[in-house]
Amino acid sequence: MTAFASFADFLAMGGHGVYVWSAYGLCMALLTLNAVLPLLAHRRYLNDLARRRRREKLL
């Protein structure tokens, strides 16, 4: 026994598919940003630190 008769019915989610799949998409986008933004900030921090060290070395 299956919950949906076809894959199209699964995607439609009984008429609530747009809400369900947009909620899943938004959640995945936020989780991805939550993982990526700290990595980018860390890389930016390391680049700034290296730039500062090179500048101090020249003085």
TrEMBL record:
The chain crosses the membrane at residues 20-41. The keyword Lipid biosynthesis does not apply. InterPro entries: Haem_export_protD_CcmD, Heme_exporter_D. Keywords: Cell inner membrane, Cell membrane, Cytochrome c-type biogenesis, Membrane, Transmembrane, Transmembrane helix, Transport. It is found in: Cell inner membrane. It is a single-pass membrane protein. Belongs to the CcmD/CycX/HelD family. Required for the export of heme to the periplasm for the biogenesis of c-type cytochromes. NCBIfam families: cytochro_ccmD. This is Heme exporter protein D. It comes from Herminiimonas aquatilis. The gene is ccmD.
